[in-house]
Amino acid sequence: MNEDQNRIVLLDEEGNEVEFELVVTIEKDGVEYALLLNIEDEDMYAFRMDKDDQGDLLIPVENDDEIAMIQELYDQLSADEE
Questions:
Q1: 56 pLDDT tier (thresholds 50, 70, 90)
Q2: Residue 34 above 70 pLDDT?
Q3: Distance between terminal CA atoms of the chain?
Q4: Residue 45: beta bridge partners?
Q5: Phi and psi angles of residue 71, each rounded to the nearest 5 degrees, phi first
Q6: DSSP per-residue codes, 3-43
Q7: Of all helices (H) and strands (E), which one includes residue 71?
């Protein structure tokens, strides 16, 4: 897969473009999540994936329990790949 196909540009709170790389999508209990790596600061962010009338939405995950669950799923997935 071409690396550019994994790139996503989002707007921050101030309207600045921020480039991310899609690391993985994870599904749990019918909810799909995307883990995105900020290209500039190399921090990882979790987003809930949804759709509306205008297309796909990425909603930042801010709940600590939900973030911990996503981290656990990602760790399991990473361990399975080793």
A1: confident
A2: yes
A3: 20
A4: 36
A5: -60, -40
A6: GGGGEEEEE-TTS-EEEEEEEEEEEETTEEEEEEEETTT--
A7: helix 64-81
